[in-house]
Amino acid sequence: MTRKYTIGIDFGTESGRVLLVDVDTGEEIATHVTPYKHGVLDEVLPNGKPLQPDWALQHPGDYLDVLFQSVPEVLRLSHIDKKDVIGIGIDFTSSTILPLDQQGDPLCLDPKWESHPHSWVKLWKHHAANKEADEITSLAIERKEDFLHRYGGKISSEWMFPKILQIIKEAPEVFEAADLFIEACDWVTYRLTNNLIRSSNTCGYKAFWNKEAGYPEASFFKALHLRFEHILETKMRGEVRSIGEKAGELTKEMADKLGLLPGIAVAVGIIDAHAGVPAVGAVHPGQFVLAMGTSTCHMLIADKEEAIEGVCGIVEDGIIPGYYSYETGQVAVGDSFAWYVEQAVPSYVVQEAEEAGKSVHQVLEEKATRYKPGQSGLIALDWWNGNRSVLVDANLSGTIIGLTLATKPEEIYRSLLESTAFGTRKIIENFTEAGVVVKELFACGGLPQRNKLLMQIYADITNREIKIANSEQTTALGAAMYASVAAGGKNGGYDTIFEAAESMAKVKEEAFVPIAENVKIYDELYKYYLDLHDYFGREKYEIMHGLKNMRMIETVEPGQNNRKLEAQK
């Protein structure tokens, strides 16, 4: 019997990776990564135009580069016959949105709009729409909108409608010029198939859509802004199709560019972190998955719906058909470790790493491993890019308590690792206190593969065994699994994601088990974390909000005040 394959394409924050997978076994045959040439645009546009604080944009051409470079490359590396590839699956950061023109092309690629920041892709971590998110939350509370409870009672600036509302208010001309607003995930499947389909996964978690009720009523959007009244039938057009279904078939034009045969199945797209859930086999209630990278996304499969504070979304059939899927998250995890290494580590540590032929992260981890829990005398809050769950407040910021003149770099590094584990424990307890069971923990993504100290800290702080994905490309594997379901059993794939998980999902035999002595100490430290969490996040959040507002004040260049005075004279 001829082996069949699917391709999973994982669009991350800094790069895209393509994975070719054996459908029968889940064996990863070949992979290739294409870094985004433009990276994250958070300071200037490609033409040098400055951006305001809290902006995070991307270039859609970088996504096409991933398709046109990495897909042919995995075919070349694998030496397989292209006729044996039966499907393509896409996963993507979210909510990453872009406006399209009437031809379905990104507005920012039109020379008329290329200098306008609002015409570009707004990356998931674009936080400049925080005021708009608060407006949506306030209106939903005032109108007693039922959808609000599915999002923990508060709307995030990262989601689709706050970002569109920011465009309406700050650049109405861009809003009018846009024929469609779409998740980048759904735009890529649109490009591959020429079939305009929106994913129930992206719409459910990021755009207030619900399987039973659909979107909120038009009256809600009209009350939000007059230009919003008809947005659903105009700029939000497109059938919402369930995760695990087929978005369409690969067009001849795209097949020729990718080196594949036209007509193969293209799966409905999925949020990147969510694709990791079936890839580790977490397809049953009580299984909790941490997708750990620059940020962490937590997904919990459950058989009931409960209103829980700070949940990013509760979506029926959202990730695994037949169940409710909850999402929560921490906005800065790997990013916070990277910030410390890139911006604050002393030069002698960098030199030591260079001489040892190791990364700075490796050196700090080795040094931090020598400390016992609590020995550094430090505790940190993991809000270096705001708090997604459970406080849903992008204006909060990180802090480290207990610093002295004797504090060492590795102690600070360890406190940052611990802070993210404390944040995860808070999220887990938020579920269990609401009566939603958490039975098993799985971790996937780049961090669990690289940092053993981090994962042992997580096991100790949560007091739970943690199983690790047996793949460095877990999200791409999950996307490939959904591609096998979109292709269907008759074409050599599977008819359900449960069948696909039985054959293709992977976890390592070795797991991280809590160390009783460490658990006891961390229980005491966690009490301090909770005190700080509630003080800075609930009681005195104005402190961090005020500091952030001061940070937004425009920097004055030397001599600029003098020039202003002369001009006034």
TrEMBL record:
GO molecular function: ribulokinase activity
Carbohydrate kinase FGGY N-terminal domain span: 5-276
Reactions mediated catalytically: L-ribulose + ATP = L-ribulose 5-phosphate + ADP + H(+); D-ribulose + ATP = D-ribulose 5-phosphate + ADP + H(+)
Pathway involvement of the protein, from the record: Carbohydrate degradation; L-arabinose degradation via L-ribulose; D-xylulose 5-phosphate from L-arabinose (bacterial route): step 2/3
Enzyme Commission identifier(s): 2.7.1.16
Domain Carbohydrate kinase FGGY C-terminal: 290-487
Highest rank taxon of the organism: Bacteria
InterPro entries: ATPase_NBD (IPR043129), Carb_kinase_FGGY (IPR000577), Carb_kinase_FGGY_CS (IPR018483), FGGY_C (IPR018485), FGGY_N (IPR018484), Ribulokinase (IPR005929)
Keywords assigned: Arabinose catabolism, ATP-binding, Carbohydrate metabolism, Kinase, Nucleotide-binding, Transferase
Keyword flag Kinase: yes
Pfam families listed in its UniProt record: FGGY_C, FGGY_N
Entry annotated with the keyword Phosphoprotein: no
Family label: Belongs to the ribulokinase family.
Name the record gives this protein: Ribulokinase
Taxonomic lineage: Bacteria, Bacillati, Bacillota, Bacilli, Bacillales
